[in-house]
Amino acid sequence: MSRRILVLAHTGRRAAMAAAQEACTVLHDSGLVPVMRRSDLVDIQSVYGRLTNPTEILDEDVTLDGVDLGMVLGGDGTILRAAELVRGTNVPLLGVNLGHVGFLAESERADLAQTVRWVAERAYTVEERMAIDIQVWLDKKLIAHTWALNEAAVEKADRQRMLEVVVEVDARPISSFGCDGVVLATPTGSTAYAFSAGGPVVWPEVEALLITPISAHALFARPLVVAPSSVLAVEILTRTDAAGVLWCDGRRGVELPPGARVEVTRSPTPVRLARTHSTPFSERLVRKFQLPTQGWRGPVSHTGGLHD
User: Fold this and answer.
1) Is there a single domain that holds both residue 251 and residue 224?
2) What is the pTM of this model?
3) What kind and span of H or E run contains 46?
4) Which positions bind NAD(+) (predicted)?
5) Residues forming the annotated binding site?
C-alpha cells in the first residue's frame, strides 16, 4: 500500500502554492500519495488549474491516522498552524522553509526535490518537542485552557499602560514588576519571541521552561530557566486596573482582565518533528543567524549522521 504524505502550505503566498504543486508532483513520481486539505487544494487550483497528479483529500479520502508524514511549505508560522492540526497524532511534521529564519523548518525551498526523495526512502528521524499546557484563571474560575509549542506571551493590552505582574515558580512569588509583558517559553520557543525579548537560547534537547520579562521596569527582572516539572504563573495585579492579553504561539489570543492568572506547565502531548539532517543545533544556530565564522579552525575530527 502506498504511503500517504500530507502537504500543507501557506496558500496566501503564491510561492508556497507553487511549491505545494511541485511537491505533489514529485511525491507522486516517487510512488507516494499526496494528501491535501480541500481548502488548500481549491486555493491552488484557483491559481494553477487542476493538478496533473491524483491528490487525496484529508477527512474525505483519508484521515490523519492514514497519513505517514506532513510536509509543511512555509515559514515557522505555517509549521505552528500545522502543529495544531496534527498534535496528538503520530504524524510528524517536516518543514520546508519558505520564510525568513525558519528555525522549525528542516530544509530550504531549493532542496524540495531532495527532501521528497528522503521522505520516500524514510531517511529521516523524528524528534518529540516539548509543548506547554496553559490555563487562565479569574476569581478561581478557569476561563481558558490551551497549549503552545513555542510560548505563552502575556502582553499589555493598552500600549500606553504598563502591566503590573507577579511572576511565580511552583506557587512561590519570585518577583513583582511593571512591564510590557512576560514570555513563558519552551526550548523550541527560546529562539522565537523569548530570544527577541532578551532570553537565552536553549538547545532543543534540554528539558526546561523559560521565563523572559519584556521591558521590565525593575533592577533584577532577569530571564529564568527552570525545571520542566515546575509550575509557572503570571498574575496581573489589580492595583493599576491595566488589562492584558495572552498570545499562544502568536496565534490564539485570550483577554486578561486585571486579576487574571496564567499558569503554565509541561504538556503531556509533545509535537513530533521530522529531521533529515544530522547537523547539530549549534551549527544550525550559526547558519540561521548568519553569524561570522571566518578564520575559525574548527575541531580536529567530525563525525556525521543522516545528511550533513
Assistant:
1) yes
2) 0.89
3) helix 38-48
4) 76-77, 81, 150-151, 161, 180, 191-196
5) 76-77, 81, 150-151, 161, 180, 191-196
**Chain segment 128-165, per-residue pLDDT in tens:** 999 999 999 999 999 999 999 999 999 999 988 899 99
Q: Would you call 76 a catalytic residue per the annotation?
A: yes
Residue 129, strand partner residues: 271
Q: Which of 40, 43, 76, 249 is catalytic?
A: 76
Let me know if residue 288 belongs to a domain.
no
Separation of alpha carbons 281 and 202, rounded Å:
10
Q: Return binding residues for NAD(+).
A: 76-77, 81, 150-151, 161, 180, 191-196
25 and 101 share one domain: yes
Task: Count other C-beta atoms under 10 Å from residue 187's C-beta.
Answer: 24
Which grid cell sits at 268? 503531556
C-alpha 194, offset from chain centre:
13
Rounded Cα distance, 213 and 201, in Å: 15
Please report whether residue 176 resides in a domain: yes
Q: Which residues contact 226 (CB under 8 A, 6 or more apart)?
A: 169, 208, 209, 210, 211, 232
Domain that holds residue 8: 4-123
Cα 205 → chain centroid: 15
Between CA 222 and CA 2 the distance in angstroms is: 52
Cβ neighbours of residue 122 under 8 Å, at least 6 residues apart? none
Alpha-carbon distance of 158 to 198, in angstroms, equals 22
pLDDT in tens, 227-264: 999 999 999 999 888 999 999 999 999 999 999 999 99
Q: Can you say how many angstroms the Cα of residue 160 is from the centroid of all Cα atoms in its chain?
A: 30
